[in-house]
Design a protein that fits this description.
The protein is mainly beta and 221 residues long. Helices cover 7% and strands 46% of the residues. The chain has one helix and 18 strands. The longest helix has 15 residues. The radius of gyration is 37 Å and the shape is elongated.
Length: 221
């Protein structure tokens, strides 16, 4: 009888002993989104680092909306959550991240305030290099007057020019004419005119329509 009782107790202890636990992946994490008060928007993880990749799974997203002219909008595969533009305060969302790219932005200023992260096995596309800013036009000054006086450079390189015309004569005008360009001031006009022109290879004339002998040439190479 005693032996049977010991065996029964031993069997119960074995049944109650926990089996070896298999580690499970933590799929519930905390994300913090923020927008405003200036033109700023961000998405950070629980450690405060900017989010660029998240494992697939369920996340709690807390959004601090600090501006009544911006909103926080997160969208991607299976996710589309947003705060109001005119509203402020904190909002909490539960999102399920899968494979794909997720974008967050302010819908009012989507080109200025935006970001993205990759979910699961997806990766963010490589960043594109913005094109270089356009080259500003080269300055060039032309003048007519006072008296029978006309001033223009003799040579120029082909390209775009910001032309300042100083017309100090009430009896002559300044006329620039050549390949692709035909601009002039009025004969009675006195003052400053601003033109933006593109000079091509060739010869341009600078002259007065009132006195044809008052003329100069610009050779463009």
């Amino acid at each position: 009888m005693r032996i049977a009782l010991i065996a029964t107790v031993a069997a119960c202890l074995v049944a109650a002993a926990p089996s070896s636990a298999v580690p499970t992946k933590q799929t519930d994490g905390q994300l913090v989104g923020s927008v405003g008060p200036g033109f700023t928007i961000s998405l950070k993880d629980a450690s405060g680092a900017n989010v660029t990749h998240l494992d697939a799974g369920t996340y709690t997203l807390l959004v601090h909306d600090l501006s009544d002219i911006h909103n926080f909008h997160l969208s991607g595969p299976g996710v589309n959550v947003t705060t109001d533009v005119i509203g402020t305060g904190d909002q909490t969302f539960t999102i399920n991240v899968t494979d794909g790219v997720y974008d967050f932005q302010c819908d009012v200023h989507p080109t200025l305030m935006k970001g993205a992260f990759a979910g699961g096995t997806a990766t963010l596309p490589p960043a594109t290099t913005p094109p270089p800013p356009p080259t500003p036009p080269t300055a060039m000054t032309l003048s007519v007057g006072p008296g029978r006086h006309l001033s223009a450079p003799a040579t120029r390189t082909a390209g775009k020019y910001a032309v300042t015309v100083r017309d100090s004569s009430a009896t002559d005008n300044l006329h620039l004419k050549g390949p692709g360009v035909d601009r002039k001031t009025g004969v009675a006009f006195k003052g400053t005119a601003k033109w933006t022109v593109t000079l091509k290879t060739g010869t341009y004339k600078v002259f007065s329509d009132a006195h044809k002998t008052l003329t100069r040439k610009i050779t463009v190479r």
